[in-house]
């Protein structure tokens, strides 16, 4: 098992703002939208975090080497090759997460912080700690959202929406470049210095009309010294709203037991199972 070196923190300065309700926001805010099918809404809730993790494509800390440029310029071919190589040994990932939500209509920015745990076999856990504790677990086709403040658990089965989930997951951990290209139009839009680190900036446009209705465009900053994502920006459909995910203390391939993804809630928790 490879024990990686923690990635240095990267600061983030998003443009302030806030937004009206959108699918990806629900998983963060915990708010409900009665007119939307529950299972589909749960999947849309999960969609953001699938992105959050999916794009953390199990990069193995490969270093940029000679030949990374054609004529001194970074190329999309080189970046995708590095992502492809780095996906080969991905098993798990843990990190601190800062999630920033900008809502344009009221020009408001809100931030949540916590930890994420991801395993290649479609297991995911997010423990938000501030400002309001909340736990989100995805285990195969099952999605759980636990809010300790009101001692409530929401349970969803996303099996009927697996095709859409797989589109999100195609971005994901250990996914080969060939599969990424199958589901997304990918372009290299530049390089930026992010907190003293050179980062390649990629843009993903979903090829699926269904996915594009929720996330028309995604940008990802990949640290060229570690080849790990350090920032992701998710653009919302139909508004100027966006989400930014920022990762620090990233560790790859630590052992994550099944218990980490077990839906084990405090006694007396109210369980809700919304249905379509």
Secondary-structure map with pairings?
Blueprint: H1 23-29, H2 38-54, E1 69-70, E2 73-74, H3 76-86, E3 92-103, E4 108-119, E5 123-130, E6 134-139, E7 142-147, E8 152-157, H4 162-169, H5 177-183, E9 184-194, E10 197-206, H6 209-212, E11 217-223, E12 229-235, E13 242-252, E14 270-272
Parallel strand pairs: 8-14
Antiparallel strand pairs: 1-2, 3-4, 3-13, 4-5, 5-6, 6-7, 7-8, 9-10, 10-11, 11-12, 12-13
Helix pairs in contact: 1-2, 2-4
Describe the structure.
The protein has 276 residues and is an alpha+beta fold. The protein has a single domain (23-254), classed as outer membrane lipoprotein receptor (LolB), chain A, CATH 2.50.20.10. It is 20% helix and 37% strand. The protein has a 12-stranded mixed β-sheet. A hairpin with a 2-residue loop joins strand 9 (184-194) and strand 10 (197-206). Helix 1 crosses helix 2. The longest helix has 17 residues, at 38-54. The protein is globular and about 65 Å long.
The largest beta-sheet arranges its strands as 9-10-11-12-13-3-4-5-6-7-8-14
Query: Which CATH class?
Result: Mainly Beta
N-C termini distance: 42 Å
Report the mean per-residue pLDDT as an integer. 76
Number of strands: 14
Shape: globular
């Amino acid at each position: 098992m490879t024990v990686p070196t923690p990635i240095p923190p990267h600061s983030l300065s998003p443009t302030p703002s806030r937004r009206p309700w959108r699918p990806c926001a629900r998983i963060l805010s915990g708010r409900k939208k009665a007119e939307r099918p529950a299972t589909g809404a749960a999947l849309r809730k999960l969609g953001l975090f699938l992105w959050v993790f999916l794009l953390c494509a199990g990069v193995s800390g490969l270093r940029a080497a000679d030949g990374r440029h054609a004529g001194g310029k970074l190329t999309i071919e080189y970046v995708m090759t590095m992502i492809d190589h780095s996906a080969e040994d991905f098993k798990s990932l843990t990190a601190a997460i800062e999630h920033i939500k900008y809502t344009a209509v009221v020009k408001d920015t809100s931030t949540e912080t916590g930890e994420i745990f991801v395993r290649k076999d479609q297991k995911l856990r997010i423990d938000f700690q501030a400002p309001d504790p909340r736990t989100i677990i995805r285990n195969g086709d099952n999605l759980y959202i636990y809010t300790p403040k009101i001692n409530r658990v929401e349970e969803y089965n996303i099996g009927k929406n697996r095709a859409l989930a797989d589109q999100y997951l195609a971005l994901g951990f250990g996914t080969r470049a060939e599969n990424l290209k199958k589901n997304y139009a990918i372009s290299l839009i530049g390089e930026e210095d992010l907190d003293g680190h050179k980062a390649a900036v990629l843009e993903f446009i979903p090829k699926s009309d269904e996915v594009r209705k929720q996330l028309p465009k995604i940008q990802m900053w990949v640290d060229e010294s570690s080849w790990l994502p350090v920032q992701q920006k998710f653009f919302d459909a139909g508004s100027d709203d966006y989400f930014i995910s920022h990762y620090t203390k990233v560790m790859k391939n630590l052992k994550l037991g099944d218990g980490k993804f077990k839906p084990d809630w405090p006694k007396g928790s109210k369980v809700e199972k919304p249905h379509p």
